[in-house]
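Sample log: Lipid A biosynthesis lauroyl acyltransferase.
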Amino acid sequence: MSGRVLEKAWKRQRQARDWLIAQTLFGLLAVLRRFPARRGLALADGLAQRIGPMTARHRVAVENLTLAFPEMDAAAIEDLARRNWGQMGRIAAEYVFLDEIFDFDPSRDTTEGMVEVEGIELFLELRDNPKPIIFFTAHLGSFELLPICAATFGLELTALFRQPNNRYIAREVLSARRTRGGHLVPSKAGAAWALAGALEAGGNVGMLVDQKFKRGEPTTFFGRACRTNPLLPKLARKFDCDIHPARCVRLPGGRYRLTLEPRLELPRSADGGIDVQASCQRLNDVVERWVREHPEQWMWFHRRWMI
């Protein structure tokens, strides 16, 4: 068989595998949709804790956790990795319940409902600020709720996101994210231009900053070498944007806390301009602080370090 024939056969096999995986996931989500949000999410959590440790990605998660927390013994690392899979199951199931989960009402007591928000005054202040803003977060907790929260306060975002490798799942994820999350830009060629265009027009941008980027700035994360995408500080330097960290963590009882933090000052170089490499490190430091507070809620099954 020629190389071209083998390549076509491999692509067909991969497409068939991706289709089967996607249909299995969609079937599970369809079953969960029959339950109330809290019950469906708890079921997804339990199911993922059983399935996740049987996958090849579990080894990656254990290796990453061991590097990040060398003071933990093997049993504690394994337990943390298993609970992390439960959180990943919740992420998948939350696409089904996004609109039901975000029941925030500023007139209601913060202990009521599924969502509480910290930084309401800041949201309102930024809504009336004509200056373009870059919000950044990490693959921590229920990060998908953040654009919905911003839109609730009148802050529309152009959000950069990485599509899943499985194109069938990617199509469904994009559809779910379009419900109330603003404009979305897939992380691929041309994405930087789209974000720049939004900021130039006075709009706001949302970005995830904790992904491995082979051509990124040399930085550290949990004390280990990694490379970080310089896009955020470059955009901030060009458009004089304010930078705000934001995160959403899961709380006991199936609740969520969304937090908008005060403006983050980026390091400056001798000429007064934003120091891109130092700024990338500052972003990593914020994410590391978040992850140390809620280690079970970050995505540990991706390669982040230069190993």
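Observation: Residues 3-98 form one domain.
Observation: The radius of gyration is 20 Å.
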